[in-house]
């Protein structure tokens, strides 16, 4: 029984990972259940066992997106010096850091939005929580500008339209970290 549940979990995980790859490789508009089943190496019936509709798959992708954001920020938080700006700097580092763990996941955001804006609710909730965290800043506007710049750069990179060289990008990230510190002085 435990082995069966592990196999089910891994098949479900393979389907979600395949959906991420499909979106990253061919775009949100081409996210079909057939394409995902093929990429996951499962039958369409096997995919439908875990996700009875495209919407249920997109909901799972939205939750995974939010979990990935949390994971990236949590990981970065351990590397950022403690202080009032720690959370905002962890956001900058976690989302835009050198490992860029969010790049593939941002494609999920696009797929979700392209298919049904109601599916963005889980992401909206997380953003509202994040805005609450920013409200503790002595300079809310500056902290919000940093958060918006992080979102903008992530989105440009996910669309592959960022004009920045590696050096320019690094300079932007470093400036955002400075601005984060200034927002909490």
Main attributes of the structure:
mainly alpha; 9 helices; 185 residues
Secondary structure topology:
Blueprint (H helix, E strand, L loop, with lengths): L1 H25 L6 H8 L3 H7 L3 H24 L8 H11 L6 H13 L5 H14 L5 H19 L7 H18 L2
Helix pairs in contact: 1-2, 1-6, 2-3, 4-5, 4-6, 5-8, 5-9, 6-8, 8-9
Describe this structure in words.
This protein has 185 residues and is mainly α. The chain has helices spanning 2-26, 33-40, 44-50, 54-77, 86-96, 103-115, 121-134, 140-158, 166-183. The chain contains nine helices and no strands. The chain is elongated, with a radius of gyration of 18 Å. α1 crosses α6. Residues 1-8 have low confidence and may be disordered.
Arithmetic mean of pLDDT: 83
**Structural class of the helix and strand makeup?**
mainly alpha
Rg calculated over all Cα atoms: 18 Å
Order of helices and strands: HHHHHHHHH
**Helix content, binned percent:** over 70%
Main β sheet profile: none
Which of globular, elongated, flat, extended, rod-shaped describes the shape?
Answer: elongated
Low-confidence regions: 1-8
Beta fraction: under 5%
Helices, by number, come to 9
Query: What is the distance, rounded to the nearest whole angstrom, between the alpha carbons of the first and last residues?
Result: 56 Å
Number of strands: 0
Question: Could you give a short description of this structure?
Answer:
Helix 5 (86-96) runs parallel beside helix 8 (140-158).
